[in-house]
Amino acid sequence: MVRCWLGGAQVFASSALAVNLKACNHFRLYNGTSAEGELKVLADGDVSDNFLIKHNLVVFRGGENALQVLQPLLDMPPEARLNLVIFYLRQGEFAEAFQLIKDLEPSTPKEYNLKGVVHAQQGQMHSNQEHLKIAQQYFQLVGADASECDTIPGRQCMASCFFLLKQFEDVLIYLKSVKMYFTNDDDFNWNYGIAKASVGEFKEAEEALSGVQDDKYRAEFCFLRCAHEHGGAVMWHVLLSWLLSVVGGSWCSRRCMWLACCCCCCWSWWCE
Q1: What pLDDT does residue 252 have?
Q2: Which of 15-24, 101-110, 256-265 has the lowest mean pLDDT?
């Protein structure tokens, strides 16, 4: 497959389609900067007039100009709608994300995953068990699928499924299996820490939560850190146990949305 692609790329090296395909591979293998660098061989007109390349530039740049580029495209390519949903989720515009995806009938793991994320968020925001049930079912469908069960996104989906079911021992089975790939990932460390605390493993929970750098998490975590620093480990255990018992259900459901986002928030791309 790779050999055939390389041969085709050499024969049609100057075509926008070949360059676009090569850029998409660089995005998957490396990052957006590397992918965008591959597009520099194209003339300005090839970039500005090609809707696939315009779409992919939004992807490579982490969502830059998403509204201006993706809204007019939506279903052409199909990933444009999914990427716009992801953009709305990242911006905290959850109602817009739900409106954009509510009528989509998922048919691929990526679509089931993303729709599960949106339903999980809606269920948490509106205390709606039906949304949470749908999210749990979607995550389970992806995680149990034969083609996805041994992938990182598939295992994250199973972790999200068990998070919503509050089966934290099972959550940890799946998170531990992919932990090596998320050493410095705030979303992962937050969910891993919460799962560890939920089963009473407070030392490991503290280690994971202490590695979180994102302000949106640290704002909720700061009073626990202060309690630990000034009151010692016993105070840490007491406060974290209290927090989990009082608001654990809604808190973990809300954070489960962020864990699920990790599965699908690698901005998708479309190549033919």
Answers
A1: 45
A2: 256-265
Query: What pLDDT shows up at residue 234?
Result: 53
* pTM assigned to the model: 0.78
Structure tokens at 206: 């503290």
Where residue 106 falls among pLDDT bands split at 50, 70, 90? very high
Dihedral over Cα of 56, 57, 62, 64: its sign? negative
| Total length of the chain | 272
* Mean local confidence (pLDDT), 14-29: 81
How is the chain classified by DSSP, letter by letter?
Answer: -HHHHHHHHHHTTTSHHHHHHHHHHHHHHT-HHHHHHHGGGS-HHHHHT-HHHHHHHHHHTTTTTHHHHHHHHTTSSTHHHHHHHHHHHHHT-HHHHHHHHTT----SHHHHHHHHHHHHHHHHHTT-HHHHHHHHHHHHHHHHSTTTTTSHHHHHHHHHHHHHTT-HHHHHHHHHHHGGG-TT-HHHHHHHHHHHHHTT-HHHHHHHHHT---HHHHHHHHHHHHHHHHHHHHHHHHHHHHHHHHHHHHHHHHHHHHHHHHHH-S------
| pLDDT tens digits, 258-272 | 443 443 333 344 333
